[in-house]
Design goal:
alpha/beta; two-stranded antiparallel ribbon
Length: 150
Amino acid sequence: MRAVIQRVSRASVTINGRINRQIGPGLLILLGIEDADSQEDVEWLSGKIVNLRIFNDANDVMNESVLDKKGEILLVSQFTLHASTKKGNRPSYIRASKPPIAIPLYENMIARLSKDLGKPIETGEFGADMKVELLNDGPVTIVIDTKNKE
């Protein structure tokens, strides 16, 4: 799994011209899923995300998590995170999972993030043409890949 995690003041997903979901301060997470991903990746990544200390504390130091701040999460599936640009100029998405594999893992991630955060999260719509709008706070953007735990 590959996640792009953005600390936001607000974020929203619009589908067919209407705002489908929106959050206030918290995290916008773009999530890419590949066939090699498993429930273990879901659990590890969710724990890492909710405990990531990327919010400022009272001393203006990034020392608090979305959990500490009681922030919100908006999770959006994004198969293009597994684009390969090695050959030519047209990205290949061969590593991105097809819906029969990706949807259950995406749903497991929704459930696990909600459990770890202690409240429901907001989501995009899997496979939909979405317009994602955000106000990146900082900007703070972190990329995590469960296959490269650095």
